[in-house]
Amino acid sequence: MGTCREPEPSQIFLPGPIIVGAGPSGLAVAACLSNRGVPSVILERTDCLASLWQKRTYDRLKLHLPKHFCELPLMPFPKNFPKYPSKQQFISYVESYAARFNIKPVFNQTVEKAEFDDVSGLWNVKTQDVVYTSTWLVVATGENAEPVFPNIPGLKKFTGPVVHTSAYKSGSVFANRKVLVVGCGNSGMEVSLDLCRYNALPHMVVRNSVHVLPRDFFGLSTFGIAMTLLKWFPLKLVDNVLLLLANSTLGNTDHLGLRRPKTGPIELKNVTGKTPVLDVGAISLIRAGQIRVTQAVKEITRNGAKFLNGQEIEFDSIILATGYKSNVPDWLKVLQSIY
Q1: What values do phi and psi take at 221, rounded to 5?
Q2: How far apart are the C-alpha atoms of 179 and 210, rounded to whole Å?
Q3: d(Cα 119, Cα 121) in Å, to the nearest integer?
Q4: 282 near 291, Cβ under 8 Å?
Q5: Whole-angstrom Cα distance, residue 150 to residue 321?
Q6: What is the 8-class DSSP label of residue 77?
Q7: In terms of Cα–Cα distance, which of 253, 227, 254 is closest to 238?
Q8: Which residues pair with residue 131 across a beta bridge?
Q9: pLDDT digit string, tens, across residues 140-156
């Protein structure tokens, strides 16, 4: 008897670009192409638009930047939306955007490999059951495709719940618990803030220096102030202005265990990609002792954690606010010859 062979995936040639990812960027590209009469096909690995927002964000999330900085091309946010739209408002905006431009992604298509064929001059994009072929490929999967799980010694020993922020929805399930929050970026700060709403006691791990800026200054968006100043002044001067605003509003965060980097916030973002934290209330709770700031973790124990300063604390739960990473290197096979 012969061995059974898996059937070859069917092949579909597309006259327009293949767009990988049905998040805001992918939808924006498809809308702009459609506006110029260019057809495209979006491949999306999940079953919905903007899956990061719909499936991997906490309930209290709002846009960190004013809506006019976040609107997609050709369609502004509704006028009745607040300055910082909520998670549900942003999702409804994205869904209305797709409907307006008649964008219909092919859902449940996980790209396994995308490779350029030198001979034909075409891209072959293989999913689990189809090979899509086109002259053009647009990668719109963003920087937040996969959650990052840190390699902390002893983490598997811990007997309580361990949750990445991609699975965190609300602090209600952690009510009255002592929680170790690993990470002090925007997610770590906001999760800690959310936990306090339910009388939990978060201990936030701060391993490295971090810039914390007020989200607003006298009703004006800090980001908006920075973008306006950068049109007229050098980056280092703008960074100094932002730090002056931060110190006058938030005070010296070094005393709270939040050391500022020596490099300014915008320069640091440009050089390393590390985004400053925009404070929406966490700093005041840190000052009040409702959010505790801790040093780096040495190891996790069965019932808590040991820290580099020798301190040992018991915890009921651990939340990993350790961010995300791109998955593009896993499937995009780029040949040097196309550069």
Answers
A1: -65, 130
A2: 21
A3: 6
A4: yes
A5: 10
A6: P
A7: 227
A8: 11, 126
A9: 998 888 999 999 999 99
Q: Which two tokens stand for residue 143?
A: 């920087």
Q: At which residue do the structure tokens 């780029």 appear?
A: 334
Q: In this structure, which amino acid lies at residue 122?
A: L
CB-based contacts of 112: which residues, under 8 Å, 6+ apart?
Answer: 126, 127, 128, 331
3 state SS for 229-281: HHCCCCHHHHHHHHHHHHHHHHCCHHHHCCCCCCCCHHHHHHHHCCCCEEECC
Give the pair of three-digit tokens for residue 257: 């265990």
C-alpha to C-alpha distance for 87 and 76, rounded to whole angstroms: 16
Angle at 72 between CA 67 and CA 77, to 5 degrees: 45
Q: How far apart are the first and last CA of the chain?
A: 48
Closest to 166 measured CA to CA, from 49, 278, 320: 320
Tell which residue, 320, 327, 330, has the closest CA to residue 146: 327
Cβ-based neighbours of 147, under 8 Å, separated by 6 or more: 56, 164, 165, 166, 320, 322, 323, 324
Percent of the chain scoring above 90 in pLDDT: 89
Q: What is the pLDDT of residues 53-100, one digit of tens each?
A: 999 999 999 999 999 999 999 999 999 999 999 999 999 999 999 999
Which amino acid is it at 289?
A: G
pLDDT at 249 over 90: yes
The DSSP element (H or E) to which 55 belongs, if any, is helix 51-55
The CA distance from 146 to 176, in Å, is: 30
Name the nearest CA neighbour of 183 among 198, 200, 168, 199.
168
User: Mean pLDDT across the chain, nearest whole number?
Assistant: 93
pLDDT one-digit tens code per residue, 309-337: 999 999 999 999 999 999 999 999 875 44
DSSP per residue, 100-158: HTT---B-S----EEEEETTTTEEEEE-SSEEEEES-EEE---S-SEE-----TTGGG-
